[in-house]
Design goal:
Helix content: 40-55%
Order of helices and strands: HHHHHEEHEHEHEHEHEHEE
Shape: elongated
Number of helices: 11
Largest sheet: 7 strands, mixed
Strand order of the largest sheet: 5-4-3-6-7-9-8
Radius of gyration: 22 Å
């Protein structure tokens, strides 16, 4: 789902002025608000209202003839009440979709884990460009949030097993619901959602998980949890059942350089090395490309 201000309104206005205004607008309406995905998993009422109002404005500026379907769609949306939770749908290169229930507020129910963050979209894009790195492997995701990365990887990269994990009760509830919502495309992968307390999880449990690959996105946002996170990552790398260490990838939006520098300093202090990985080259999801997002791989 694109931000409204990123949609090609100027290009649309140019096309409408060339004629076929009603035909083009109706085609857009059928591919958006009247599309099966939108009807089954509707975006927020506000988003649909603003989108339709802009379409009507464009249509009225190029033709005097009203388009009943446009006004019918807007009338239906205006009759709906806004809710705190809405659907967001992400389209995959394979042609499939991932529809998630997400909060409309950045912070909701005392957590930031009920929305999809930019680093998660970046990590997902990178993974979709490198499916061979996950195929047939057991993956553990830390701080899965609402589940975009894991569901997309299970759909497109075909791991053997995928373990979604988080700790906040509201996030776990939403995560389980989203995994179930998208379960139709996950039948070939062993999937589970687990509560994982970074501070108290035992080495025996980490060893039992026996993961080949660990991924996490936007988990470096609060200096108060950095020590706990670094300790967990260190234990994961050191307590593997196999002689080989698991691959560990962390994607971070660098909002506060001091916090991110502190994270890297603590990694060094724990004896963990890191290398920066080139990010995705293909733009799949709509997010702010001006944000500084870094993807690193950890090792001993």
């Amino acid at each position: 789902m694109c931000r409204l201000n990123t949609l090609p309104w100027t290009l649309l206005e140019t096309e409408l002025k060339r004629g076929r205004s009603s035909e083009l607008i109706l085609d857009i309406l059928n591919q958006t608000c009247l599309h099966t995905v939108c009807l089954q998993h509707p975006p927020s009422v506000k988003y649909r209202r603003l989108f339709l109002q802009e379409l009507i404005k464009m249509h009225e500026s190029t033709t005097p003839e009203p388009l009943d379907e446009l006004y019918d769609a807007l009338s239906e949306v205006l009759g709906l009440g806004e809710e705190s939770i809405c659907y967001k749908t992400y389209f995959l290169p394979s042609g499939g979709t991932v529809s998630l229930t997400e909060s409309q507020a950045v912070i909701s129910e005392g957590t930031t884990g009920l929305v999809t963050w930019e680093a998660a979209m970046c990590l997902t894009e990178w993974a979709l460009e490198n499916p061979h790195m996950f195929r047939g492997r057991t993956l553990l995701e830390l701080g899965s949030g609402v589940g975009l990365t894991g569901i997309a990887l299970c759909r497109s990269c075909k791991p053997k097993k995928y373990i979604f994990s988080d700790f906040h009760p509201s996030v776990l509830q939403k995560l389980r619901a989203n995994v179930e919502l998208n379960s139709q495309g996950l039948s070939d992968v062993s999937v589970c959602v687990e509560e994982l307390d970074w501070e108290s999880v035992s080495e025996n449990r980490l060893r039992d998980i026996d993961t080949d690959t660990v991924i996490a996105a936007d988990v470096v946002y609060d200096p108060d949890i950095v020590d706990c996170l670094v300790s967990l990552l260190s234990r994961i790398l050191k307590c593997s059942k196999n002689s080989s260490q698991p691959d560990v990838y962390i994607a971070s939006t660098i909002r506060n350089p001091e916090t991110y520098s502190f994270f890297k300093k603590q990694l060094t202090g724990a004896g963990l090395k890191h290398s920066i990985i080139t990010g995705p080259t293909t733009q799949i999801f709509p997010y702010n490309r001006l944000s500084t997002i870094e993807l690193i791989k950890l090792h001993l």
